[in-house]
Amino acid sequence: MKVLITGGKGMLGRTLQAVLKEHELIIADLPDCDITDGAGFHRFLAAAAPDAVIHCAAMTAVDKCESEVDFAYKLNAVGSLNVAAACHRQGVRLIAISTDYVFGGELDRPYHEFDVAGGAHTVYGQTKFAGEELIRRHCPDHVICRISWLYGAGGPSFVHAMLKLADGTRPELKVVADQHGNPTSTLAVAGQLRNILAHPELVGTFHMTCEGEATWYEFAQEIFRLAGVKQEVRPCTTAEFPRPAPRPLNSRLEKRMLRLCGLPPMPDWHDALAEFMKAEFPR
Ligand SMILES: NC(=O)c1ccc[n+]([C@@H]2O[C@H](COP(=O)([O-])OP(=O)(O)OC[C@H]3O[C@@H](n4cnc5c(N)ncnc54)[C@H](OP(=O)(O)O)[C@@H]3O)[C@@H](O)[C@H]2O)c1
Question: How far, rounded to the nearest angstrom, does the alpha carbon of residue 217 sit from its chain's CA centroid?
Fold first, then answer.
């Protein structure tokens, strides 16, 4: 199959390039392809003539979105609209990557795909939800995959940030222990996207995070344990660590659609992290 990847040079895109070897991949990333240029993307897509698009391109700097609101909407909402409209007009299946941040995070259980999204408290979450809605409206043949707490080869990610901070100069690291989510590897996401590609009949929204849950504090402890790094970690609250974009307290996603559609479950986050650490930071 011929698969075009927007944002293909990014963290997830690079893993997709490494994993989806059985497909012919076309990378649509800056500077050759700009998804905010509707006519330009239309031409790029027509020339490539893929069977499917995996849409990864986004403004992913969550805090920066708070101060660069127009740019965030232009890329995450209008850019996604351009991709959706071009795919629909050219009869190309669209698989778009979204985020747990489309939810407000107030629920006391994991969010599933039939929960109403759109209560995001961050500009990033609001722009990604706007992008989702535009995709639903303008490209019926779509799959939207929500992922979260992502790490992959080369980073940037929480895993890379923690290991950089643990350089022996800090007696202790304070890590937030009241936000709950699903740490997820790009490798696990790529494996599930391969299944989605193999099933052209699938449409709709799918949660695609690793199984099991953690706080950032627990995630950090496991990173240091696997890396064999001795670093004191102390739990702290979100209030002690104010950020421009207020992170949701509950980012946990239930994978109801994978289950209902008979797709294999995502791996447990401990296993996915162990596999990643072995490859990225061999001891
Ligand atoms: N990272 C996470 O923790 C996380 C969590 C949940 C969901 N997601 C979603 O997962 C997807 C992939 O994330 P990622 O971490 O791989 O992102 P990333 O590393 O930031 O990669 C995004 C790629 O898109 C490119 N891009 C930016 N503007 C573009 C444009 N106008 N046209 C074409 N390409 C453009 C970027 O190029 P430049 O680098 O030159 O800007 C970059 O190569 C995104 O949709 C993101 O919202 C990520």
Answer: 20
Residue 241 lies in a domain: no
Range of the domain at 118: 2-153+183-212+251-267
Structural domains of the chain, count? 1
pTM given for the model: 0.98
What are the tens digits of pLDDT across the range 224-245? 999 999 999 999 999 998 899 9
Ligand 1 center from residue 13 Cα (angstroms): 8
Residue of 14, 30, 189 best suited for mutating to test ligand 1, as the one with most atoms within 8 Å of CB: 30
For the CA atoms of 10, 128, 121, 206, what is the dihedral angle to 10 degrees?
-90
Phi, psi of 215, rounded to the nearest 5 degrees: -95, 170
Dump pLDDT digits (tens) for 190-211. Answer: 999 999 999 999 999 999 999 9
Nearest to 53 by CA among 84, 9, 78, 21: 84
* Residue 101 appears among annotated catalytic residues: no
Coil, strand or helix at 44 = helix
Domain presence at residue 193: yes
